Amino acid sequence: MSETQNEDRTEQPTEKRLREAREKGNVPRSRELANVAVLGCAVLALKATGGEVGSAARDWMRGALTIDPALLDAPDQLLPHAARLLGGLLLPVVPLLLAALAACVIAPMVMGGLRFAGQSLQPDFGRLSPMKGLARLYGKESLAELLRSLLRVLLIGGVGAWVVHRAFSTLLAMPQASLEAAAGAGVDMALTALLAMVGALGLLAAIDVPWQHFQHRSKLKMTKQEIRDEAKEAEGNPEIKARVRQVAREMSRRRMMDAVPTADVVVMNPTHYAVALKYEAGGMRAPKVVAKGVDEMALAIRALAQKNRVAVVEAPPLARALYRQSQVDQEIPVKLYAAVAQVLSYVYQLKAWVPGRGPMPALAGVDVGADGAPDPDTVNGPAL
Q1: pTM value > 0.85
Q2: In terms of CATH architecture, what is 261-383?
């Protein structure tokens, strides 16, 4: 046997386990709740419509026992007459049928909701196993069903005995009473017995409903290994996630390297950090970072910038501040506007300078403020 099979199921089922069980139609059901719902709704409907049902039944009986002489000479009309009598008999009990049908819908909704699960219609040949059948026959469920049956018999028997004892004097007086009075007393006694029975079954259902919920969750309990496997499945395989992150980093690196030739300047530190900036006057509110990197990535950005004749400025404090405080494809922080503007101004002057026409532009110290690196705010000349 595997480790999972040997391990005890001590963990409560997860939401995923419960959801999968509901999709398969595996939800808690209480037979006692269904019985009391159907019987209770039918009795209440009978109690509410008893007078109308009695009148309709009396009229139907009178009509059924009255022989129409015309039918004696028309045998072909006997079948339609019988159908009309049957329809007249069913009509008074329609409210009872509707109440019972409503109870059949309400009871499952109270327990676990109405669900149509196609998987439950598929044949399960595992139920044909003799060992599983013996386990169900002598298992805890069978014992619980036996106890429920005994309790049901005791409750119904006790209720019946109580009703008969309470109405004993009425039963003795019924032979001397008129037919209508005896019938009314009998109907009242029957309704009282049914209501008492509904109350007894309701008590049994109040015990059975929590028990069914407990049993349902107990069957769905999981082992610690199943919990770990489910969490691993939900979060994803670590190897796959690592590969996805690696691919994402490679795609981000390629995207940044493709953007370096379009940059206006690359700020270096001089080899550990590199940040490529781009600014379009009138099209951007502030310079934007198009690429950044450290160590080998920084050297690759610098080499690509030099290959595409993008200005490279060594400004260690500014390079560190830009790397730490800015993101790729986003504008630089407001507190670095002045320093970056100074570098871009220097780059534009350098591009416009023509050798032999005045001195070569020089870049003064770039001040990144208190948020920059603690190194002295000095920069070297441009590396073009």
Answers
A1: no
A2: 3-Layer(aba) Sandwich (3.40)
